[in-house]
Amino acid sequence: MTNQIISDAIDLAALRRKDKDAFTQLVKADSGKIYRLALKMLANEQDAEDVLQETFIKAYKNIETFEGRSKISTWLYRIAVNEALMLIRKRKPAQVDLDAEIITESGEFVPRQIVDWCCLPEEEFVRSETRQVINLGIKSLSDANRAAFLLRDVEGLSTREAAEVLQISESALKVRLMRARLELREFLTEYFSGKMPEVAQ
Amino acid sequence: MKHPHPASCQEVLWQINAYIDGELDPDLCSHLEAHIENCPDCQIVINTLKKTIQLCQDDRDTIALPPEAWDRLLVSLGLNDEDDKE
Ligand SMILES: [Zn+2]
User: Fold this and answer.
1) CATH number of the domain at A3-91, out of 2.40.420.20, 1.20.1250.20, 1.10.1740.10, 3.30.565.10?
2) pLDDT by residue (tens digit) across A154-166?
3) Protein fold of A98-193
4) Phi-psi bin for B5: left (phi > 0), alpha (psi -120 to 50), beta?
């Protein structure tokens, strides 16, 4: 599944004809990243698998609406993010947005904690407890900010591509990314501060 | 001189994403760096922010679709008989 097919190299005309071989190639090329995004969005393997299936079912059904102006993976990400957000909305009532905490009303940005935890020994960062905390941090972001962060920083999309997936402007994307990154920094700083040797402070 | 006043922490923070992504124009970048060099707080925020992003990227390549989920995906798409062609 982690093979070298690049989805943009797949014959679009064949995909539009709903050619099964071409579509299988597309699934092979992009199912891994769609699953990863869904898993990080939803923090649940079953939900991620459902979103993955729905994404490719919709892609197959609607491939003729893909105009080929963007990468096909960008188009798939868009379907997947929408599916994931729909699932989240189905599961829980509208969430309270906590973004305001980090950017104050006057527009000033205030980092709450300044602790240099980068110097911790490398083992600290690879422990499974740490991985869980990182995933918890990602989960704690608002849905909109989490999607922006995952697309840009984990999936490695450009600002333009990530904005296209979320159907927002590039400047809106940048605001969401900034909030997400800073929230995560605070979250991890909170955790790693407790790991710092007391005397070094 | 385009920037007659030294940069403040707040200016650095507003540009922090563009700064760590290397998207600032060289002139603004060196203006901010002149502040950062002498400001331990900004250094810490920048370093821990970079580390935060890196940590979130670290398990990227270890997340793979479980083989059973792959099989179920092909079945749901009606592509399962194509699977052993390769
Ligand atoms: Zn400063």
Assistant:
1) 1.10.1740.10
2) 999 999 999 999 9
3) Arc Repressor Mutant, subunit A (1.10.10)
4) beta
